[in-house]
Amino acid sequence: MDEVALIREAKSGDLDAFNRLVLAYQDVVYAQAFRMMGESEAAADATQEAFISAFRYMGNFRGGSFRAWLLRIVTNACYDEHRRRKRRPTTPLQPLDSEEEEIESPQWLADDDELPEETAERQELSTAIQRCLDDLPEDFRAIVILVDLQSLNYKEAARVINKPVGTVKSRLARARMRMRDCLQDVWELLPAQFRLVGEETP
Questions:
Q1: Chain-centre distance of CA 2, in angstroms?
Q2: pLDDT digit string (tens) for 184-197?
Q3: What pLDDT, on a 0 to 100 scale, did the predictor assign at position 183?
Q4: CB contact at 8 A, 185 and 135
Q5: How far apart are CA 124 and CA 190, in angstroms?
Q6: What CATH number matches the domain at 1-87, 1.20.120.740, 1.10.1740.10, 1.10.3720.10, 3.10.580.10?
Q7: For the chain, which terminal residue's Cβ has fewer other Cβ atoms within 10 angstroms, N or C?
Q8: Can you give the residue ranges of every domain in the chain?
Q9: What's residue 188's pLDDT?
């Protein structure tokens, strides 16, 4: 994929070029929305809103990481949705499949090559991480998702949330401490970032 060419064409209004960018980044954007929102339906809505906004404001993209630019848009879409929910609280429904069965984990986490015990561990870890993320303040949640789950560096994360790098480092350190305390029950299943609290990310 010639991303630079696709972005140039999308900025000139080429919908086909933009749709190719959507296909390339939809999993990344949905993963960010799912972790921010904690449920699949809300994540899908935020993802859709993010791509609509991205197409509308393609002219505002001035270069750099297109991925980080999209993550900024979807993160802001999630902030907006959280604010709407605070004004009009609702009881979230468990996501259901076509047979009205509860979905245990989103499709983007699936791995067809996993052994049953690996699947169980992944689902246990995913559920624990989501529970602890939901308990974090919104600003902390966004940073730990961007850096520890989306693998952005400090500068990219700072651009996404429109804050100084120092703010990113401070929030990440505090978020990791809270996540570490919350995730004691699944400590051995954790990625290295959560176990090595306080170490720098390049």
A1: 24
A2: 877 776 656 555 54
A3: 82
A4: no
A5: 11
A6: 1.10.1740.10
A7: C
A8: 1-87, 111-202
A9: 73
